[in-house]
Amino acid sequence: MRPSHLFRGLCLAAGLLLAPLIARAEDGHELWLRYRPVEASAAGAYRASVGAVAPVADTPTLKLARAELERGLAGLLGERRDGGGEILLGTPKSSPRIAALKLPLETAGDEGFRIRTLADGGRPLTVIAANTDVGVLHGVYRYLALIQTRQAVDRLDLLDAPKVRYRLLNHWDNLDRSVERGYAGQSIWDWWRLPDVKDPRYVDYARANASIGINGAVLNNVNAKSDSLTAPYIAKAAALADAFRPYGIKVYLSARFSSPIEIGGLKTADPLDPAVRAFWKAKADEIYKAIPDFGGFLVKANSEGQPGPQDYGRTHADGANMLAQAVGPHGGIVMWRAFVYSHEQPDDRAKQGYSEFKPFDGQFAENVIVQVKNGAIDFQPREPFHPLFGAMPKTNLGMEFQITKEYLGFSTHLAYLGTMWEEVLKADTFAAGRGSTVAKVVDGKLHGCSRTLMAGVANIGSDRNWSGSQFDQANWYAFGRLAWDPEASSEAVARDWAAMTFTPDRRFTGPAVKMMMGSREAVVDYMTPMGLHHLMGRSHHYGPGPWVAGGERADWTSVYYHKADKAGIGFDRTAKGSDAVAQYAPPVAAAFSDLSKVDEKDLLWFHHLPWDYRTRSGRPLWDELVIRYSRGVKAVDGMQATWSDLSPYVDAERHGEVATYLAIQYREAQWWRDASVAYFQSINGLPLPKGEAPPPLSLEAYEAIAFPYAPGI
Ligand code: GCW
């Protein structure tokens, strides 16, 4: 062996031996709750100010709050904390010591907390106090997060409370354990073995959610089966509720509107029929008997083939109010989805939700929340905000985001969605003048509403890493943080997540967060730049399908949305076209309609333009489109380079997994670009801009790519 080889061999062996000490192999199962040791240079200061955790009152939530704090501190700082200080947890009700401190807690509400450091006769004392046990638990997670992200904890006076009341995950999980639009394996709910077998994951799930402030879970798919409302399934849901309860998480169920027929032996589900109303009242009573803190129902009605009140000539308000009356006496709510559209309806699909719901403003019961998707079509990589936000001042209006990436590359593309959600939340509806942001509708400030809701379609499954990919965990995390505070900065959230999930070392978080912040825009570029939308493969929604036409309904095709022909491309939603713009407040409508004002990122959402339309870069539209497609591909190349440079900071297992996924993403970004360019070029016959490579395959070859076994259908 040559000496240099010997040397390299020795280094390799030493590296292998040391590797576990440097970066232990990890699979991502621990999420952002890893509690790895603080580096020696910072640990001393923390040990001095962080003390022993005082005993707590004997309640399930306080006991687990204390256990979590012990576990976190032991991981971060070790068992020995020598400052001689103390950490005191509890509520004024459960702890005379906390009561004696008389900390102002009014604004902490039912779920918030105050963390204050005091000196108790020279000993550092940290108090994590709240009005409720679950508020204390939230405070514990925040306190640990401060250390996890290396912020000082020696002089704290921090009060925080959620700005949104219902912060819910919506699971589109079926009773056979498949997950509609799920890309992280099977459902984590093992319905078959429940209620007897209580998978420890149920508790882990509740813990992860509590750590980011999520307080409810709709267990089953909105495309619901009535079976989930039968006695055996109520018992299964009750077992889950028992596991979640100490973490402050309630269960909710999706209710199939035709259940009175399917499981109630009735001939009708007409919401005004007394027998139907009695069925739902009895059903609610039965559920509350098993689950006293049951949250309520989520309903998808008269949408995509689901039954609903309109089947009986009744309205959405009739249907929602009937259910609201059944759960109301128990404190429950009804979340009624506004995602409705019909292919029999000749009007622009983007207008239909607004047209159907706006007339009912003020007619929904007090405990109904109308749940509105962020955009008017369907969770596309970019949509302008839904025109219902700001348009129903007398109705509780909740936000529905999609955490699972149905339209953004499933779990193999890295796309941080915090930026997308922030973009929507910061959008100004002008409903009550400038500054009437979507966030202010969602947190209830704009219209003085207290039943506020943010729902996220979960991306959780039975994969070890929960979300199908390491970086998709960031979307679960960001959803929780933005539901807690819709005005939070997605960048700050990404930074916290990256620090807690990988390492707080800035040499890592700097580039990693930059990569995350640009990642969704990259997807928009390589899939649907400049306001294009709904151009994915039919039904499975994977990969490009701008050619999709014909079939059962026009509003499930791509040609319906891009309207490309020899002359131009885009959906005219101005007054000359479908006039969808008229559903927005006048200043917003004016800006969207005006070619000199509309943001080019939304251009083809609102306008149909000739291929040679001059864009702001000075380039003709066609050239600009092609350049943006390619820009998206290049961005993924950049992400690969960034990630490769970050290998010193990440354990080999997770680093390797992310790198592999980025390679898939790069290949598929290229495929999206090439297939889209090939298709649109076949329509307009125009040459590519200088320097742009022609697609390597024929259009027919792209069209022939099929996915009969894609997940999530
Ligand atoms: O995005 C579409 C999905 C459907 C989904 C529907 C909805 C649950 O493709 O799978 O059904 O939206 O939100 O109801």
Summary keywords:
eight-stranded parallel barrel, binds 4-O-methyl-beta-D-glucopyranuronic acid, five-stranded mixed sheet, 3 domains, 39% helix, alpha/beta, 22 helices, 713 residues, TIM Barrel, Alpha-d-glucuronidase, C-terminal Domain
How is this structure best described in words?
With 713 residues, this protein is of the alpha/beta class. It has three domains: 34-160, Chitobiase, domain 2 (2-Layer Sandwich), CATH 3.30.379; 166-501, TIM Barrel (Alpha-Beta Barrel); 525-571 and 608-704, Alpha-glucuronidase, C-terminal domain (Alpha-d-glucuronidase, C-terminal Domain, Alpha-Beta Complex). The protein has 22 helices and 15 strands. It has an eight-stranded parallel β-barrel with strand order 6-7-8-9-10-11-12-13. The radius of gyration is 27 Å and the shape is globular. It starts with a helix and ends in a 10-residue tail after the last helix.
Cα-based radius of gyration, to the nearest Å: 27 Å
- How would you classify the helix and strand content by structural class? alpha/beta
Give the CATH level 1 class of the largest domain. Answer: Alpha Beta
Number of strands: 15
Largest sheet: 8 strands, parallel, barrel
Give the amount of beta strand, in percent: 5-15%
CATH topology of the largest domain: TIM Barrel
Bound molecules: 4-O-methyl-beta-D-glucopyranuronic acid
Can you tell me the number of structural domains?
Answer: 3
What is the typical, i.e. mean, pLDDT? 95
| Spatial order of the strands forming the largest sheet | 6-7-8-9-10-11-12-13
What is the CATH homologous superfamily assignment of the largest domain? Answer: Glycosidases
